[in-house]
Design a protein that fits this description.
Layout (H helix, E strand, L loop, with lengths): L1 E3 L8 H5 L5 E4 L2 E4 L8 H5 L5 E3 L14 E4 L2 E4 L2 E4 L1 H17 L3 E7 L6 H6 L4 E6 L8 H15 L3 E5 L2 H14 L4 E4 L1 E5 L2 E8 L4 E5 L7 E5 L16 E5 L31 E5 L6 H14 L2 E4 L1 H5 L20 E5 L5 H5 L6 E6 L12 E4 L2 H16 L8
């Protein structure tokens, strides 16, 4: 429920803030019409707090909420906007959840001139794409995106909304959840259905336990999901989704935060572990920088990237950007080679979804051996150079067997 009190001064700021044209002026008093979606943009814009919004608890009628939604996060590329891989993973996971519930999988696509990306979302399983295009959405803005997202959710009532646990998803999801007065589970590593509800699994207490969280009384159920933990389905070329175009009227100059300049730290893009197919990771057992130089040589021969445990970062052997684990980056490469890493729960959370895990450790009882497919008991500092040499011989077509 939304109300405008007699303290309205007729400044008109609420009119320009409303993305759906739900406000008009009746003399010097603002009036609300049937287009209102309770997005709350006018409440924030009113300089005299004359507009109030009250959201009733609609938990008694959960049957009105249908479908699984995925927020489609975009990234810049030389050819224009593209869909981030984390969105592909969420769509793949959402497809499974939607099928189990007998509901549709929908994607929310926001931007400027991005309608062509609807086919990409469809190829990863989306049945519907809610498309909101506006110049003010050309770059991510918390104000603009949250306003549109709240409005769409209020209008269509999804059962669950999933966001990638990226810097954008972590910024947007809490804002939307607070506006709608619903719960949000952050940094999920698992999603499933239990008794018709979304069972959200995430690490808790420093990663020492895994917590299962339910939101049985409110809708939509909302979660951010870590990249690289959900298995991505193969895309289906030629797949089509129903595109629902939403007309929005955002005031580009009304944003409270403006981007003055964008600076990209290129050093973090070199040898990035986030999307690497092969990762050679080192821990405390590598002892010094020379140990990581050997891992770098091995990674170069394998065509992979170098990662590390938190212990190695704390020792100053590797930068934080290369850390794998709960407080670092979650990865899911085809091959993960753990050298001198004991296997703390916090680290395993960040790499356990790798296709093949190979562990090298001097301690035969190290926890890392419980999750690896192949394990070698020995000094990684001695074994890594031999692996690099064997890789070099294989690349040259020579036998790597001892004479």
């Amino acid at each position: 429920m939304i109300e405008i009190s007699a303290s309205c001064i007729g400044c008109g700021k609420c009119l320009s803030a409303c993305p759906f044209g739900a406000l008009s002026m009746d003399g010097k008093l603002a009036k609300i019409n049937e287009k209102c979606t309770l997005c709350g943009a006018c409440v924030q814009a009113c300089p005299v707090a004359a507009i109030t919004i009250t959201r009733k608890d609609e938990a008694a009628d959960l049957s009105a909420y249908k479908d699984i939604w995925v927020f489609a996060e975009l990234s810049d590329s030389p050819g224009g906007k593209t869909v981030r891989p984390a969105t592909h993973e969420l769509l793949s996971c959402g497809r499974r959840l939607a099928d189990e519930l007998g509901q549709k999988l929908c994607a929310v696509l926001m931007g400027h001139n991005v309608s062509a990306l609807a086919d990409t979302l469809a190829s990863f399983g989306a049945d519907k794409v809610y498309l909101a295009e506006h110049e003010a959405l050309s770059e991510y803005s918390t104000d603009a995106c949250s306003t549109v997202m709240v409005a769409l959710i209020s209008k269509y009532k999804p059962n669950a909304v999933l966001y990638p646990s990226t810097y954008i998803g972590r910024d947007l999801a809490p804002r939307v959840a607070s506006e709608l007065y619903v719960g949000l589970t952050a940094d999920c590593t698992g999603l499933s259905i239990k008794d018709g509800n979304l069972l959200q699994t995430r690490p808790a207490f420093g990663g020492n336990i895994m917590a299962d969280i339910l939101s049985p009384s409110t809708r939509p159920q909302m979660a951010t999901v870590r990249p690289n933990v959900m298995k991505k389905n193969e895309p289906k070329p030629g797949a089509k989704a129903q595109v629902i175009r939403e007309s929005v009227a955002l005031d580009k100059n009304a944003a409270r935060v403006k981007t003055v300049e964008r600076c990209v730290d290129q050093t973090h893009g070199t040898g990035s572990i986030a999307g690497a197919g092969i990762i050679v990771s080192g821990g405390r057992g590598m002892k010094n920088k020379r140990g990581f130089e050997m891992l770098s040589e091995l990674a170069e021969e394998l065509g992979g990237a170098v990662g590390s445990s938190r212990a190695a970062v704390d020792m100053g052997l590797m930068p934080k950007s290369h850390q794998v684990g709960q407080s670092g980056t979650t990865v899911s490469p085809k091959l993960y080679l753990a050298c001198g890493i004991s296997g703390a729960v916090q680290h395993i959370v960040g790499m356990s979804s790798s296709e093949v895990i190979i562990a090298i450790n001097k301690d035969p009882s190290a926890p890392i051996f419980n999750v690896c497919k192949y394990g070698f008991v020995g000094d990684a500092a001695q074994i890594a150079p031999k692996l690099a040499e064997a890789a070099r011989k294989l690349k040259k077509g020579k036998s790597c067997r001892p004479a």
